[in-house]
Write a structure and sequence with these properties.
Order of helices and strands of chain B: EHEEHHEHEEHEHEHHHHEHEEHEH
Largest sheet of chain B: 5 strands, mixed
Oligomer: heterodimer
Radius of gyration of chain B: 24 Å
Distance between the termini of chain B: 37 Å
Distance between the termini of chain A: 17 Å
Structural class of chain A: mainly beta
Strand content of chain B: 15-25%
Strand order of the largest sheet of chain B: 5-6-1-7-8
Number of helices of chain B: 13
Chain lengths: 114, 404
Amino acid sequence: MVVRKKPLKWGRNCLIRIGVEETTKVGQKFIYMLEQINQQIEVLVAFMKGKVLPLSFCWNDKKYSINKVNLVHSERIGRDKYYYFSVSAGEDYFKLQFNTENNKWLLAEAYYAS
Amino acid sequence: MPARIIFHIDMDSYFATVEQQARPYLRGKPIVVSGKEGSRSVIVASSKEAKKLGVKTAMLHHEARKLCPNLTFVEGDGVKYGYLSGQMIEVFKNYTDKVEVFSIDEAFLDMTGHCQSFKQAIDKAKQIKAHVKQKLGEWVTASVGIANNKLLAKLASGLDKPDGLFLIDQNNLDQVLKKIKLTDFCGIGKRTESNLAQLGIDSIEKLQSWKLDPLVKVFGPSYGNKLYNMARGICHDPVVSYLNRPEAKSVGRSYTLSKNTYDKQEILTVLLHLCEKVGRELRRKKLAGKTVVVYWRYEDFTHAGARKTFLGYLNDSQAFFNLGEDRIKKYIFPKAVRLVGIHVSNLIKDYKQLPLWLGERKQIELLPALDKINDTYGELTIKPAYLLKLKRLKKKVGGFKLPD
């Protein structure tokens, strides 16, 4: 069942809204949207078996516990190497970016219930 | 024991399943990987769910939307697909050193010597499938074809999709050849199919009934022989390992403009950007080229261009651009242009240029310094002033390639 169609407000600190999708959960009505965030965040990570495993992060005064890392890939731009972690936190999806040159984490995009 | 055991491993709906792997909210939904919805790009890959509804590769956006109104468009990410392809090849290298990368999402593996029988080969294929899933993710699946040559292995991988495993051996070869269409073979396209149809050949059985001589007469010695062998499931092509990959014969780039245009300034700016990319790639691979082709395609898909073979070898972007600029400035476009491209061939490896004139020498000595800056800080950090007005060309979703 689709909830309703009306323009969605821009999320806090969102730079670009690149898409809208509407869905519902059983008994609850949620509007999900995919947004490009590009905002620096702090991430709690574990180093296991030679790999970095993001565990949780804070964004918009809310703590998200990562329950699954769906995909990891990397990219080199000049001498900087970036790792991208596509993760799930409950029903929400996030793409985190880690810059190995300055050790900073960025929340690249999010698909979450607004 | 079979003389050879060849695997062909083909990822199922590769780009689409990678996106579904990364973003679980797309799983089970019909999605396509393409440019932005409404843009001029075509569909590059469709998910298994979209394929069931008839959405195919190379369809236009509105055609796909007509077939599937709730279709989700996802912008392609070439870096991601290239990286994961590299991971996939690493998995294959655990099983044999003879891995031939056929495209970004498929490879041939020569497993001769690593398996003693087809039964063992099936077990090994199951192991590889599980290993790929473990490395790339649970949503990403591969189909494996096993046979005693590349032709049949490639055919077999397409017979049990998705997530399939199919063996073609002497027991089922005739049965398989009776079932398939001519175009199911890699190497018979629409044009050859129509040429064969003119000769009254519309099935493998009919192709088998032709002798070698008439086929050679019509299609020439090379392709005539190939067709004759194809009809009998014979192929002697070796698996060329990634270690023995032949050097590039040409380097080229093209770009479809956001809208058809007569604007020479816009066309030249895009061309300079493409020349920069081609020059960078040549210099990175320590190559230089003699023959340069600058071309443009009109709105009606006809094309024109300029070709020049220089006396010496070049890998300087500016020299390539000068040829294009010279021709385009003099030219009056009869129709609007939709695509611009450049292509450098006649390549030589490890070429060291010794310019006679001081001006040329300065330019050539400057190039390594410019490359070093762009290597350190990213592409086009330092660029010709001409490109300052141009925003970075929008990422295209076609023509993904593996990282070097």
